[in-house]
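anyone seen this seq b4? input:
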Amino acid sequence: MNHKAGTPMSTGKRSITLVATGGLLALAISACVPTHTWVAGPGVNPGDFDQTSARCSLIARHSGSDFAVAGSPSYVAGAVVGHNISEANRTQADYNDCMLIQGWKIADQLTTAAAPTAPPVLPPAPPSTGGPFNGRWVSDLPIQGRCQAAHLVIDVRGDTISGVVSNPGGTFPITGSSSDSGNGKIRINGSDANSGTIRFSGDNFVADYANASCGQRHAEGRRI
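predicted toks r here
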C-alpha cells in the first residue's frame, strides 16, 4: 500500500498509544510536531506569506516515501495507523523547516491566548498646540483579510510619534517620527516586520503598515 501524508497536522501535543490484537504490535507515539504562527524575518515581504506557505505545504506533502506492510489484518491495521501518524509528523516537520529556510520566524508567543486585561493606561494627551500635528489621534480598524479588528491610539509631540495598538492578541507599542509636512514612519512592537507609513493632514490621518502575522493593515483616523 502507498500512503502519503496529508496537510500539516493541527497545533498541539498529544500522546497516542495503539496495541494491536494478539499483542503483535505496540506503538507509543508522542510529542506530535506542532504547527506555528509565522512572522516575516529580515528582508522577507509579509505579503508573500500565502504563496510561501502553499509552496512549503506542497513540498512537505510530496517528500515522503512508499510504505508496504504484510501480516495479519490486525497487524496491518496497526502498522497503517502508526505509519500515518509518523508521516503526518514528518510532513509538519518538513513544512516548518521549509518556512524557516524561506526566512520566516516562529512567533507563537505573539498570539498565545491570554487572560483579558484592562485597557492600557496612557499618559495624558499631548497639547494640540506647539506643532501642526501635535495631539492625540485615534483609529478603529475593522477586520481586514486575516487581520482582526484593532484600535490605534497615537500621540504626536513635535516630530515624535508614540502610542499603542490593541487587538485580540494583546496591546503593542507604536513608535515613529513625522516631518513638518505630515509624512512619517511607524513601527509596531519595535519590529521592522511590523512597520509602515503614516500621513497627517489637518485633523485626519492615514496609516498603512504591515502586520507580520496576518498581512497589510490600513487605518484612517482623526485627532481628538
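The chain has a mean pLDDT of 76. The longest strand covers residues 191-201. kinda curious what u guys think
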